[in-house]
Amino acid sequence: MAKILIPTPLRQYAEKNNSVEVSGSTVGEALANLTTQFPDLRKNLYNDEGKLRSFVNVYVNDEDIRYLQKDATAIADGDTISIVPSIAGGRS
Predict the structure, then answer these.
(1) Which of 36, 48, 51, 55 could join 86 in a cystine, given CB atoms 3.0 to 4.6 angstroms apart?
(2) Domain 2-85 carries which CATH code?
């Protein structure tokens, strides 16, 4: 199983877990299993077309999946998937 790290802003949708172990052979399968387990996460991760939202970055073992095979990126037992939402704003 792979471990998915849940960022602080999304933990409220994942029963306050900071990480969850999921099965799957690709990032897409792992995220699908995550959102099956925690359906409220789906609207925060995916748009209406079922694509990852543009402000959601996903890494496998510190590698950005946008530069690998996106949601078809293969994962193995013991891999760590990090969900990193982009944060904008601040003071000027």
Answers:
(1) 55
(2) 3.10.20.30
User: Structure pTM?
Assistant: 0.90
Contacts with 48 (C-beta within 8 Å, 6 or more apart), sequence order: none
Show Cβ contacts of residue 63 under 8 Å, excluding neighbours closer than 6 positions: none
Summarised one tens digit per residue, pLDDT across range 16-73 is 999 999 999 999 999 999 999 999 999 999 999 999 998 999 999 999 999 999 999 9
Tokens, residue 46:
């995916």
The CA distance from 38 to 21, in Å, is: 12
- Reference 28, options 74, 61, 62; nearest CA is 74
4 close to 56: Cβ distance less than 8 angstroms:
no
- For the chain, give every domain's residue range: 2-85
| Strand ranges, E, within the chain | 2-5, 19-22, 56-60, 63-64, 80-85
